[in-house]
Specification:
Layout: H1 2-17, E1 39-40, H2 52-66, H3 78-92, E2 101-104, H4 107-118, E3 124-129, H5 135-141, E4 145-150, H6 159-169, E5 173-177, H7 189-199, E6 215-219, E7 243-248, E8 261-264, H8 267-276, H9 284-294, H10 297-301, H11 304-320, E9 324-325, E10 332-336, H12 341-350, E11 353-354, E12 356-357, E13 364-367, H13 371-388
Parallel strand pairs: 1-11, 3-4, 3-5, 5-6, 6-7
Antiparallel strand pairs: 2-8, 7-8, 9-10, 10-13, 12-13
Bound molecules: pyridoxal-5'-phosphate (PLP).
Length: 390
């Protein structure tokens, strides 16, 4: 108790004397609760840890990298960018040269680089809510104005409204997650193309008064979970130099702990990101680990089909319980509504199941785990619904 009171006083004292940047007053660090519980379905991780074989290969690669740790890492990491390009060529059938790939410590950092390079004071970043809660933070951290326009009731985009918002805001960057988090809904390629068309010549004017194209980022963090036949926005890259497609090894690839996100765009966009990145931002250990993991992509991705299948039975099951559940192209499902979602979340937690309070009022998001974890989730939810139904 003493310590808690002490910490509170300390905070007050700090707030009153530090020259905190205007705009950061009262802000708290991003974060879902990190709780040690048996069933963790709250941050959209892949539930399957790497195999002994993958672990051994990573350990060997890191040992080799460790021998050179007196030197700075490869600053432009062409080998890793080539391996990521090779991965995309297999995964999405889109072949890109390594100069069109960029990587950083998580796709969060990749998107921060985008806003550092293209956003800034007097510039706007446009997104469509509900969406990923980190987007406003990239804008805040780069002094970019964040503008959120609403999605339709079913979370699709009204393309006329999108074009109007672009015309009005002249954003430097548009951030669109597809599949979207927390809704799970994907964007059709036709919709992406129409947004790209609306973005042409509609970015902020240069200081010389020349028109620019607004950068459209399609955040495909969950791209590998998309349903069969759903294409990736990577297919639109060649015809649209103002498109950037962001990916990550954190979700389907099962490497959230590695912190490796990447992006595909035209070489000009990538070169702008190279200007703003901190020198040597990707450590030798990260590069070695990512390369070793990518060489095992088939094994690491082998669970994606079963996670998709689990998802596709969960959605109808939730509906059978009388709930609304949205079709998902990701590894999570948004469901509800609950009169008191915080209470439902807490009761599930009491049964050892951690999910996420996020999205529209009354809704909760559950990530797809192993079949055993999903069974525990379902049985806990049935109990909680019984307890809380009036
Ligand atoms: C999880 C997630 C990311 C990925 O974050 P990393 O920094 O790569 O771990 C990006 N965008 C969305 C929408 C996400 O949900």
């Amino acid at each position: 108790m003493e310590a808690v009171v002490g910490a509170g006083l300390l905070t007050l004292w700090l707030v009153s004397t530090l020259p905190l940047r205007p705009g950061l007053e009262g802000e708290t660090p991003y974060g879902a609760p990190e709780l040690e519980v048996p069933v963790r379905l709250n941050v959209n991780e892949n539930p399957y840890p790497p195999s002994q074989g993958v672990i051994a290969d990573i350990a060997q690669a890191v040992t080799k990298a460790a021998a050179g740790l007196n030197r700075y890492p490869d600053r432009d990491f062409p080998a890793l960018r080539q391996a990521l390009a090779d991965y995309l060529a297999v995964e999405s059938k889109v072949r890109l040269s390594w100069e069109r790939i960029w990587a950083a410590n998580g796709s969060n950092e990749v998107m921060l680089h985008i806003l550092q390079a293209f956003g800034g004071p007097g510039r706007a970043c446009l997104s469509f809510t509900p969406s990923y809660s980190m987007y406003p933070e990239y804008a805040r951290d780069t002094l970019t104005t964040y503008v959120a326009a609403p999605r339709r009731e079913d979370f699709t985009l009204d393309l006329d409204a999108v074009a109007t918002a672009i015309d009005r805001e002249r954003p430097a960057v548009i951030l669109l997650a597809s599949p979207n988090n927390p809704t799970g809904t994907g964007l059709e390629l036709g919709a992406v193309q129409s947004i790209l068309d609306a973005a042409r010549g509609r970015g902020p004017a240069t200081t010389a008064g020349e028109p620019t194209d607004c950068i459209v980022v399609i955040d495909e963090a969950y791209g590998e979970f998309r349903r069969a036949g759903v294409p990736s926005a990577l297919e639109l890259l060649d015809a649209n130099p103002h498109l950037a497609v962001s990916r990550t090894m954190s979700k389907a690839f099962g490497m959230a702990g590695l912190r490796l996100g990447y992006l595909a765009a035209c070489a000009e966009v990538v070169n702008a990101l190279r200007v703003v990145r901190l020198p040597y931002h990707l450590s030798s250990v990260t590069q070695a680990t990512a390369l070793a993991a990518l060489s095992h992509r088939e094994e690491l991705m082998s669970q994606v089909a079963s996670l998709r299948a689990q998802r596709d039975v969960l959605v109808p099951w939730l509906r059978e319980q009388g709930l609304t559940a949205y079709d998902s192209d990701a590894n999570f499902v948004l469901f509800g509504p609950f009169e008191d979602r915080q209470d439902v979340w807490r009761r599930l937690l009491d049964r050892g199941v951690l999910i996420r309070v996020v999205g529209p009022t009354g809704y909760l998001r559950v990530c797809i785990g192993t079949p055993q974890e999903m069974e525990q989730f379902r049985s806990a939810l049935v109990t909680v619904i019984k307890e809380t139904r009036p």
